[in-house]
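re: that chain from earlier
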Amino acid sequence: MNEKPLQVAVIGGGAAGFFAAISAKTNHPEAKVTIYEKSNKLLSKVRISGGGRCNVTHHCFDVRELVKFYPRGERPLKKAFGMFSPTDTVEWFESRGVNLKSESDGRMFPTTDDSETIINCLMRETRKLGIGIKTKANIKSLKKLNSGYEMDLYRSGRIKADKVIVATGGSPRASGFDWLRELDHEIEEPVPSLFTFNMPGEPIKELMGVVAEPVSVKIMGSKLQSSGPLLITHWGMSGPAILKLSAFGARELNEKDYEFKALVNWTGERAEQEVRAILKEVVSDHGLKKIHNVNPFGLPGRLWEFLIEKLDLGEDMIWQNMGKKNINRLVHLLTNDEYQVQGKTTFKEEFVTCGGISLQDVDMKTMESRKSPDLYFAGEVLDVDGVTGGFNFQAAWTTGYIAGKLR
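^ sequence. v structure.
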């Protein structure tokens, strides 16, 4: 008499869910693996990420360096990335006919520059392996049985599974994790990560579209600091420098209710002393030129004009007439330019939260729950999140791959 095949339920039809299902079926060919997605859309974040190009991973192949891009999960992820790293991601996709390329900032995309290439690859693999997919299958509750689990769906009755992989993504509200809290899991409070700074009262918004690179940004009254390109927007500031700061400061900035002062060093990480020395050279070499016409730090022209006007020095001011006081004012402005932040903007379709299932409740070598045997986690449902640049997808591929081994 044939034994009943292993029933594996994967909850969530995103990147982590698909990768977990593929891993489960690959490692357990006899199993019946089914993906349950609450909406009617599959792989929706994959489709819109990277402006529709899909930032698959990052060209950081040294695990010790890679984990530094994760504000939450750095230490536990060392074990996980040792099992499935960006190198493995590249090999996995390329072995299935999807070539990836690196850009100058280390982000990796399919050479087609089209996220549908990644989606088609994952869909093709699920079809080839015979993985089932059910959409509009919203899980109401998950109950542990003597053997396996029972899932109660809102409109589709009850389903039993021997093993369950939860890959439902992050939730903007703690209540989104209530069904997992009922299984005695500790939930780290979710708060937004990867958001931009709103500056409703700051005239710099008029420079929307200007990119300064590199700059260094600090949060006044904290140890938070990051550097990189900064994009001025019609609502305030964005770009990698700001997004990285928002990720590492997610909880602290939430506690401040997103009202704080940002200090911008437009010269990168140069100290005041070095900036002052460069300006003295400018006075010596270009003393008779107007300050508007000599831009010693290569800032975008509109930004340089804006900063000069902020000092109210007059259009005809020449370098040799600046004097010590005005040089000091310019040094301070270039290295400690102050902006009032009042609120944030998150990208609803691509929102990333910090928070989720506490990593203390998860064996990171298997992704199995320490509280509920035969229950596994993958992706952003965990209290793991990375900065922008392909790191969140890499965490999804890695945790999905490991969870799918089912020990």
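The chain has a mean pLDDT of 95.
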